[in-house]
Amino acid sequence: MSSSLGAPRMHAGDRPIRSHKTPPGGEKRPKPPLKKVLPQVWALFRPRLGLVVGSFLLMIVNRACGLVLPASSRYLIDNVMYHGQSSLLPKIIAMVAAATMIQGITTYALSQLLSTEGQKLIAELRRKVQEHIGRLPVEFYDRNRTGVLVSRIMTDVEGVRNIIGTGLVEFVGGLLTASIAFVVLIRLSTRMTLLTFSILLIFAVILMRAFKTIRPIFRQRGAISAEVTGRLTESLGGVRVVKGYHAEESEANVFAGGVQRLLTNVLSSLRAQSMMTLSSTMVLGVVGGLVMYLGGREHTAGRLTVGGYVEYTMFLTFMIAPMVQLVSIGTQLTEAAAGLDRTNEVLAELTEDAGSKRKAELGTLRGDVRFEHVSFEYEEGKPVLHDIDFVARPGTSTALVGSSGSGKSTIISLVCAFHTAQQGRVVVDGVDLADVKLSSYRSQLGVVLQETFLFDGTVRENVLFSRPEATEEQWREACRIARVDEFVERFPEGYETIVGERGVKLSGGQRQRLSIARAILADPRILILDEATSSLDSESEALIQEGLNYLMRGRTTFVIAHRLSTIRRADQILVVEQGRIRERGRHEELLAMGGRYYELYTRQHGVEMNMFLAPGEGDKLEEEAKA
Ligand SMILES: Nc1ncnc2c1ncn2[C@@H]1O[C@H](COP(=O)(O)OP(=O)(O)OP(=O)(O)O)[C@@H](O)[C@H]1O
Fold first, then answer.
1. For residues 13 and 405, what is the distance between their CA atoms, to the nearest angstrom?
2. Which of 63, 241, 457, 603 is the most buried (most CB within 10 A)?
3. Of 10, 143, 409, which is best to mutate to test ligand 1, by the most ligand atoms within 8 angstroms of its C-beta?
4. Considering only CA atoms, which residue is closest to atom 28 of ligand 1?
5. Are 241 and 248 in contact (CB under 8 A)?
6. How many angstroms is it from 379 CA to the middle of ligand 1?
7. Looking at ligand 1, which atom is closest to the CA of residue 400?
8. What percentage of the chain carries pLDDT values higher than 90?
9. Tens digit of pLDDT for each residue in 450-462?
């Protein structure tokens, strides 16, 4: 039995969110078409239209004020300095001061309004994507790696900051400033402007090409980073296995490989970025020289005043700066659009409850579970279950036994409605599980797995996980029944003790008791038990059995059984082999049949070796044998 039901068997992580849409991790992603992205961007804008329009107005004021300084320089030089109109000076200074102040205030207001909104949106999208991913079917998790999902939730949404945040407004602002500057420049000197402008245009084309090279590098960086982080999380989480197999070195090599790929990626983008800086410096030099040359000649010819020349150079910088900015913001915007597209791709995945079919609300269950000729396959053409047909009556226990890979966990996954059968039906209290609203069903389901899943929180939080609204009395009672109180009270901080990630600070038996307390608190109608294969000492074993006995009472229980005591107590045992039920009945009946069950039971002969034996059970059996 797998440690977690329905957990991925293969390393499916390298496969995509949607196989037909998204290529694997490091590969280049196709750019989403504009036709597709525009409605998505519009959907972001629509609810905050007022804010966006207001910001644009603010931005126009902001940019207009920014142009007062260069525009006033001509009057300062020509009128005040050359022609001694000193009465103009205070007016010029007052205008520049006022404009600068308004510019400062509007810049502040803009960044406050937009950056705040951008960050709020990121938070909102993260919540939305996480919640959505949480509601996706188990197959989705089988298909996608944890690291990739984490980056979907945390990184992909970051880009929207550039759309709603300052990015788009800056983009339009830059466009506006550059256009105004261009008009002023043409008015000052058409010849000079057309010449410099053509050089700048060539430069802009080069820049755009450079960004085109860099863009996929950035995109790849996200994918590589997700992969490396994913693997790192796995190897840190599995540190005991890593150390147990002395695999520190090979893990270090895997990580070093990932880091190297990241480095290569960063270096290649750095190179391109440096080339861009180099070429922009050179272009600025050429344009500067050209303007000096032409300006000098225009002045000598009497077509340009000194003030006009200074104004010209100032406006020129006002045109060049936004042009460079435009190209880089343009890249950010396409990045953001690609991220938004990926986010929407996840949000478009159908949740488990989606579709019109899952409508049936279940009331409190009696717990009658029937498999009616169920066949199932994970992958097309590779059937795993064939014609499974059985009834589990309310309050009874069904033990599943059989060799590894025979299909026991898959049967349990179908009971949990993690998957839906391709043929036949799984019927609970007369309702086909395929039609059931999952929340109304799963809330009545309890699972106790051999690998207990504990959060890095306190003991109390971990017990309350199954029913957060339970009263103190209720959870304490559950802990008492499951004998959690016995060991917790020995901890100095009692129930407030942090159990550590995956509960490593607790022993295996303690973890199991905690997980039983959790299930007792949940009070499920249907209980799934995956018995631990590992042996505990007989004292812990006895305590756990006691808890389980309480837990199973009155509930329909499915247990992937490894303990003889559970199997003997079961109301029915299903012997599963190669996806079919080979034998069924109670322990004595099956033994008497002398078939597969008998074989499994006696295969290892020596009572101590028996595969169904838990500590202490061997003695009982030997006594029976003697009798
Ligand atoms: N998510 C999955 N995708 C594809 N195949 C799967 C998946 N999970 C299980 N299988 C396959 O289905 C078959 C039955 O597996 P299952 O986990 O149900 O067996 P099991 O009886 O519980 O085995 P074990 O006792 O070893 O856990 C196996 O051949 C397994 O490889």
1. 21
2. 63
3. 409
4. 405
5. no
6. 12
7. 21
8. 21
9. 777 787 788 898 8
